[in-house]
Amino acid sequence: SSPLYTLLDLNGGTIILGSDLCFSNFCKLPSKGTIEGNGKSFLLRGDLVVEEEILVKSDLTIDGSLQKIKFIKNGRLTIEDGVTMTLKNVTFDNKVSQTPLLCNGPNSRIIVNGATLNLGNNFELGQGYMLIESAHIKGPYEFKISTTKGSKIASSGLLSVTDGAILRFDEKGLAQNRSLLTGEDSTSVLLLSCATLSSAKPGLMFDVG
């Protein structure tokens, strides 16, 4: 892993990872670009600021070591169809009006392990699906799931929703799949504290966990 602290102005260019890339200090991505993760990791040792759309074209892990990814201006990470983005030990600090993490196809996947989503605005999972090992959604805004593909809380996994957040399941998705969120087994936990779970008709079927 090579240490790096800088402003990465991609200007439409591409980062191709052949090994893990360590950002040893604050880093900013101020322009549009592409990341080919190739199954490797961004290792954050300071906050990462995303100001424009970054397209993720192959599997990528962001290991935050409890740092923040801050989305400002037009900041967004877009995950191509068939690509997996893993979020590990990181906090999303969302200051934008658009959804900061966008699945670009039905087979885009987000694995969440030790991540906190501070909702600074409404968030929608409109395509793709999630595997939640450990995640914390903090309000006071809405996290809406309108995709038709079911997401899962992993075995011994935890999804906690707090601080006035609304976990909403949309009619468009439920009409085709009532199990938009379920557990892998009886050890999977969904915890709501000072939060709201809202399900359109015909209703969410959380039958495992």
Rg for CA atoms:
17 Å
Give the averaged pLDDT, no decimals: 92
> Helix coverage percent of residues?
under 10%
SSE-based structural type: mainly beta
How many beta strands in the DSSP annotation?
Answer: 19
Identify low-pLDDT runs: none
Shape descriptor reads globular
Largest sheet: 15 strands, parallel
Distance between the termini: 39 Å
- Alpha plus pi helix count: 1
H-E string: EEEEEEEEEEEEEEEEHEEE
Q: Which percent range describes the beta-strand content?
A: over 45%
Which helices and strands appear, and what pairs or packs with what?
Elements (H helix, E strand, L loop, with lengths): L1 E3 L9 E3 L4 E3 L3 E3 L3 E12 L3 E3 L2 E19 L4 E4 L4 E11 L6 E3 L5 E10 L4 E3 L3 E10 L3 E4 L5 E12 L3 E4 L1 H4 L6 E3 L5 E5 L2 E4 L10
Parallel strand pairs: 1-3, 2-5, 3-5, 4-6, 5-7, 6-7, 7-8, 7-9, 8-10, 9-11, 11-13, 12-14, 13-15, 14-16, 15-17, 15-18, 16-19
Task: Give a structural overview.
The mean pLDDT is 92. This protein is 2% helix and 57% strand. The chain has one helix at 171-174, and strands at residues 2-4, 14-16, 21-23, 27-29, 33-44, 48-50, 53-71, 76-79, 84-94, 101-103, 109-118, 123-125, 129-138, 142-145, 151-162, 166-169, 181-183, 189-193, 196-199. It has 209 residues and is an all-beta fold. The longest helix has 4 residues, at 171-174. The N and C termini lie far apart (39 Å). It has a 15-stranded parallel beta sheet that branches. It has a 4-stranded parallel beta sheet with strand order 12-14-16-19.
